[in-house]
Amino acid sequence: MHAGCRKAVAFGLAAMLMAGVSSAVAQSGSGDVLEVRLPDDATIRDVAELYLGDPDLWEEILKASGVSSVAELKPGQVLRVPRSEIVSANEALIESLERIQAANSAGAQVFAFDEITLAIDLRDTALEEREARNWPSTYSFATQSIVHADDAHDKSLAQRDQSVEALLTDRSGAVEGRRPQELGWSDRYLRNTLVEQERVRTLSGSTAQITFRDASRLRLNNNSNAVIRRMRVDPLSGRQEARVTLVEGDFYALLADENERRQFSVDIPEVDAEIESGNFWVSHDRDSAKFTNYDSDEVRVAAQGQSLTLNENEGTVVRKGEAPDLKVDVLAPPDLARPGDDARIYSGDVELGWNPLEDAVGYWLELARDQQFNAMVTSEFGLEDPTHLARDLEPGSYFWRVSALDGFGLPGQRSPVQRFAYVEDVDPPFLSVVDPRDGVVSRIPQISLNGEAEPGASVSVVLGEGASPMALDVDAAGAFTGDLVLMPGENLIVVTATDTAGNARAVETTAIHVPDVEIPLVFDEALPRLAPRHFLSGGEVLTLGGLTAPAAAVRVLDAEAQVLAAGSADTEGAFRLSIPLDSAEQTALTLIVETATGQSLAAEFKASIDDRPPALALDSPPPRLVGEPYLDLSGSTDPNASLTVNGEPLAVAADGSFTLSVDLLPGANELQLTATNQLGAASDAAWRVTYDNSPPVLLSQSASRLGEGASALAIEVVAEDDTGLAAVASATVAAEGETFTGFLRLNRANNTYAGEIQVPAALLGRAQLVEVELADHAGNVAVERLK
Length: 787
Known about the structure:
Elements: H1 3-19, E1 21-28, E2 31-37, H2 44-52, H3 58-65, E3 78-81, H4 83-105, H5 108-111, H6 113-131, H7 135-159, E4 166-172, E5 175-178, E6 186-187, E7 193-194, E8 198-202, E9 207-211, E10 217-220, E11 225-233, E12 240-254, E13 263-268, E14 271-275, E15 279-284, E16 288-293, E17 299-303, E18 306-310, E19 314-319, E20 328-329, E21 336-338, E22 343-345, E23 350-354, E24 362-368, E25 376-383, E26 387-390, E27 396-405, E28 418-422, E29 431-435, E30 440-442, E31 446-453, E32 458-463, E33 470-471, E34 473-474, E35 479-485, E36 489-498, E37 504-513, E38 522-523, E39 529-531, E40 534-537, E41 541-547, E42 553-557, E43 563-568, E44 574-580, E45 585-594, E46 600-609, E47 616-618, E48 625-626, E49 630-637, E50 642-645, E51 648-650, E52 657-663, E53 667-676, E54 682-691, E55 697-705, E56 712-720, E57 728-735, E58 738-747, E59 752-758, H8 761-764, E60 768-775, E61 781-785
Parallel strand pairs: 12-13, 22-28, 30-37, 40-46, 48-54
Antiparallel strand pairs: 1-2, 2-3, 4-7, 4-9, 5-6, 5-8, 8-11, 9-10, 10-12, 11-12, 12-15, 13-14, 14-17, 15-16, 16-19, 17-18, 19-20, 21-23, 23-26, 24-25, 24-27, 27-28, 29-31, 31-35, 32-33, 32-36, 34-35, 36-37, 38-41, 39-40, 41-44, 42-43, 42-45, 45-46, 47-49, 49-52, 50-51, 50-53, 53-54, 55-56, ...
């Protein structure tokens, strides 16, 4: 969501969302579940912030609504908000903290340690359950914490009028003690009782907190040694007296309120201090004693017969053997810089930083687990730089403050306490991509990327496989935007949100860039056709296919602009449509191609139904008998028909005419002529042609005179042939060197030729048959020469 939109939502969101509440219709956990309609100008994080008080609880609404992903949400969608269950748990956590703080103020750390410790542990468990989004368990542990905190409060009030000793209520590092009757030092542990005249010391890198019965506290810093000289109660006034000797090192004190305060004195060799202040610091080494007062009540310091009074935010240095005569204003508090107040940290190593002060020569850093600094984690006195790295922290809340040290080594005013929380966060951040929607098609390469992520998260985008991530600008509310340049075709867009804990969530979407170019259109070359855009069908459905723009929509309209067929091209641009035909000839069909980017193309075409086989005719019928080894034929068929002779293709002219020459083998030859049109219909013609290359065979012959006085010879010849003899044969007779030829006619009944040859009478007696010429139907000739 853009910043302007979010600003508008900030003013109107509550009204819009409340208007969308339909009813509390179900029971879940400890309370009702609300049904809310998601407004057009709000996100699920806005809904979570309004009803649950925390925008990061958006996943709880998704879970209750049965929605698996933010991408599935749509404006107006009904969401189920488990409001009462979560609100009750959070309110119980807040109340448990207030009850624990009240009990500590009443002295629970001294008088009801077990009860207050159990209350704190139960609240910590409730916080862990809250992090895990276990709301019934959160509520249960928080309410148990309240009960035990109240017990600790009541027990503390009841015991504050009883006599108890001081307690060691906090320690870090090595802390040792020695009672008057003991000869050596021994370890002191939490909750150890401290008595009058007992010595307490801290070693290097250690601190210790001593808590008195009225909840007043002393904090010994490292390498310090103190003696609790006196702890007494005045039965009449109820006021208490405490005297502490600081042998070496330093401590600071936070005393109880004035109406409950003890009389407190600090002894340092050669220096005495009477304390009315409730907040002060004392230091002692071989050369001097140092005091600072941070309270409006006074601290009086006396030595060598003279005294000096310190008012609020004043300090002094009393050198050994000298009277107190120096009083200075302590330095102002530094400004804490990082981490920010109430920051969430996701690492156990935390860098603490503050703004340096001009007159500071060092700094004093305190880090604790509680706001009262009862549970000290570290106390670093004398840091040279305005930064410190706290290592290996445990998950939980931490409080810290810093004082500046002046040239005398006096710590200045403490900075306001700031809090940070070290959270072991393993949940991926919220992420929603609004634009571009998945599968969007763009005619231009430039598009805008818009969405919303968890505030504070960084967002990057990768456009295309193998590309480098590009960081996006994210505003304080989590809205992000960016400009992308698409490549032609499908572009994979991967948006990743990474929170400050390093958890990441990725959302994928695609955008298709189809540049404005001429739309291609090529009809399938295999389609039957009479002309380039006149297609044929063998029935009442025409199958039309081809190539055009990838993913384009295609449809066919008739002459009245009615849609006959519709479909789409695949990612390669191939399309195929089945078009119903209601007449044998349709001349006004239009193919419409529309690309995903809105470009369109119209192409007109024709369609004809042709269910007849092609024509097939020869110019003249082939002979049945030939005497040559080849046969030449010619004929015609339909244009665009294919032709085969005995299975072998034969070329056909554009007008359908054809010629062929067939090689023949001796004997009978079968000829099969087949014409096939583009739709597969065929016409056949078959013939048998006999190729005869053998002449007739002469079987017998005879010549005789016709009778007395005749002038001719009667000739008779018997012959045979497989394909049939010719009707006429010729014969030649010779006499006295002269030859005479005549023709014989065939008697087909017995394959006998007979005829007469005229010979002069003078020569007739000497005439002889010398040659017979036979022929068959194929034109083969046999000449038989006789002796």
